[in-house]
Input
Amino acid sequence: MSNQDPNPEVQKLLQEGIKAAREGDTNTARKLLEQVVEQDQYSEKGWFWLAAVVETTEEKRVCLGNVVVINPDNQRAQRLLERLEEGEIGDSKRGKSSGDEGVSKSSVRLAIGLGAVAVIALLVVLVIAVGGGGNDNESTPQANNATTSEGVQAQETPETGTQQITETVIFQPTLTLTPTLTPLPPTWTPVPSPTPIDTNPTTPLAPPPSGLTGTIIMRSGQVAADPYNQPIAIIQPDGTGYRIVSPEGARGHAPVLSPKGQRFAYVRFATGTRENVLQHAPLDGIGDSWNWTGAPYLYYQDTPDWSLDGAWIAFTASGSGAEEPDLYRVSIVAPGETGELQRLTSDKVIESWPAFSPDGTEIVYVSDFTETGDPIVELQIINLETMEIRRLTHNGSGLIESAPDWSPDGRTIIFQAQEAGSEETDIFQVPANGEVQPIKIIDSDSMDSQPRYSPDGRYIVFSSNRTRNWDVFVYEIASQTIFQVTTDARTDIANGWGP
Output
């Protein structure tokens, strides 16, 4: 770990870089993580995560070598360095073979920019193959499956906010990891795996059919200094009615519409304090906005979801002495009034992406168990009445799940996932009772992310860079047809489809 006091700006960059790497956005992750190690050359986590997203063997060598210099007891970095020397891990760019390209300009810049640390790291590479030992550093994530078979599997966590909560209710749930399985509904029929989509990456797909209803909400735009936070916008499913709904100059991510479509919640980036703050605001801009504030002080707020009755927002945050982000929910009252906060989990697992069931009795979410041992990311479901937790997926490191969403009938859960050995994410579905293994329903040679059901459950909105730009797409479940909603040069990442 860094031998310096934590710098809030560096910590924010680190968390956002982790999340981008976790979601497979390696370009954004690299930009953010390079800023981390430039500002804190002793950031052990920064170098380790950077090793997962750089492209060449020499760059990985420099990054992992720096990790070992900073913490000689980091066995994970040592093992990966050994595998680099043995040729088991090569360049992540397709068409390259390990060691054939030499040192890239970017790795030279990294080595020169950090002086002694990087130079020593290169010497460490020669030593690792002969010896080395120590214990695993529990605070250091593992490398990404897209880069190594041990892979970086982490989750960016949200940052903080500030409103006085006068009544705080802390729940200590019973952690029951054994799933409670019930027979599949007789009407549930698995959708067969689709034929991989082979499209010209420069040619837009056909627009969605007319008559689709509802509103899609997304982060939209391009902020060079902050590739993860953009203005929040809405658009109709047919591509018309585009409108920025966040306040002028505001930007953020993970937007979600309220059940009646009158307000939206998102994680707003506070430019003054450089924090991420949970906020909900009126969609038409008329009326008050509400920010999470106060007691307890919560860091890294992220990934909100609204319950269907509009009474609660679930989100993740770190606070109250927690080592990792936990799952919370807060009651929604009139803006300016206090609400009830409930802490739903308290453990060493990284929780993220909560999504309420349609009846509001359960929440599905992502659990990253990497810090507790082997690199395992799974979907779990917590019962809000009994506080029992059951494991929904059981794929280990073979499938890295993220961004789940519940079907309107409550029977199916969709999510994005990265398969072991793949550099892309695809869209999967699994029955909510967990009786059947997940199946892939949207497959391409690009990044497909953040699937969300339409209000009628007949379509799925998702985002993809399959046209060499991040755009919004709609998938018709019955016909397995994909349509393209946005075609402009903006970065458009959808995260909800409301009324």
Notes: The first strand starts at residue 143 and ends at 144. The chain is about 15% helix and 30% strand. Residues 8-22 form the longest helix (15 residues).
